[in-house]
Specification:
homodimer; four-stranded antiparallel beta sheet; DNA-binding
Amino acid sequence: MLHRRIVSALTDNILNLIGNVSGYVIYLSGTQLAKRLMSAYLDKITDFIERLDMETANVLENCSVAKVFKKGDFLLRQGDVCKKSYLVESGIVRKYYLHDGKEITTELIFAGDIAVAFDSYCLQAPGREFIQAVTDVTVAVTDYAVFQKAKQQYPKLTALDLLMTEYYAMWLENRLFQFQTMDATQRYRLLIQKDPHVIQNVPLTYIASYLGISLETLSRVRAKM
Amino acid sequence: MLHRRIVSALTDNILNLIGNVSGYVIYLSGTQLAKRLMSAYLDKITDFIERLDMETANVLENCSVAKVFKKGDFLLRQGDVCKKSYLVESGIVRKYYLHDGKEITTELIFAGDIAVAFDSYCLQAPGREFIQAVTDVTVAVTDYAVFQKAKQQYPKLTALDLLMTEYYAMWLENRLFQFQTMDATQRYRLLIQKDPHVIQNVPLTYIASYLGISLETLSRVRAKM
DNA sequence: CGGATTAATTGACTTAAGTCAAATAATCCG
DNA sequence: CGGATTATTTGACTTAAGTCAATTAATCCG
């Protein structure tokens, strides 16, 4: 069921983003509080979905189509308009852009989470981001136009879209917070603490650029652990 | 008129965020393209507001109340729940949090733009951010609960909220992009190119932490210009 | 399997930016 | 005004992280 997955994905995600980095308390008022708050927000989304009327729930359900991509395949290329959103069912996807010939990973997307080039999707205009399958993946593809239309007919879908966009904005705020307050080691520790499977499945090059550090620095950070 | 201001604020903001930093082309496909795209998005918001039915437009209009703050006053303190959003009518407001005893400015808000502690507002839970008047300011205050209620009755307000939240998320993505691809000098140049009045009105300490650099580094960057 | 390509580590050196401390400059207010 | 507080600059030094280059490890596929 689409929505259940979205929600569980969000739960995982929150646990990934906020936490205690070996003695390093993130939210001023403490990690535990932050977790509770964010969970509360997820509950809000869960509740919201569960309270949807049958018809709206059904429309949401039928908005997406399953699709498979092989490792290395591109779901979206730089310069393309992002006309689909991809709910990852299995496997790993990443978003990245090129800068000075280097790939800068902006997001690592695991099962249950949604992959979309946000600005390109909102603007329906060519963007700089690539979306690529890091492993073989299965995704639930939702078309932009279809969802837009559905939102017009079923206003609650707009409210749901808003909740999820708010969540994404909070995720971005958190990422920014990490960049402004944590060094390479702390950022890496936080990542592996919350997404331990990242290490087995994602090349360190991707992880390094995701953390905003060089591959060599990441390697050295890992060495002393 | 509230909405007009929101829109013109957004326009300014976009011109602030994306641009050519003395020979440094930001969007891969070029600054001009990015500007056009973001403007198009603003047009979308403008259009949306202009097409609102009388009743909805009226409700939106009557959601807010004028208020004045003196320089240094706090609109919100760390640990408080952000129950209001503040549309700045005149003056400058900033958002910041404390980290290791230092103030980290997260946003500088000018006339026409909205000041809100986003996560605290969405979660309706205590947050880490302070919102403070950098100069004497007049703001249009909108209550969270009132706006929530209005959205329930007038679905188009939800759609408007979504558009603005999408805009904020894109703003955050852009800020993240700047942190990952630009050095101190480039970030400073971009800021003053787009917000030249910042220099006259905002203490360099605030600007430095907003750019994610130390006051001394900012001073040195400014010296060689 | 085993050579070849790709990924990761390690070493040596550079550099952007941070820190600490002191000196100016600006502004505020009695 | 003029002293006091606050803001900014400048200097000297440190440091986290980057770069370049070489090596080792892993994995891919014929």
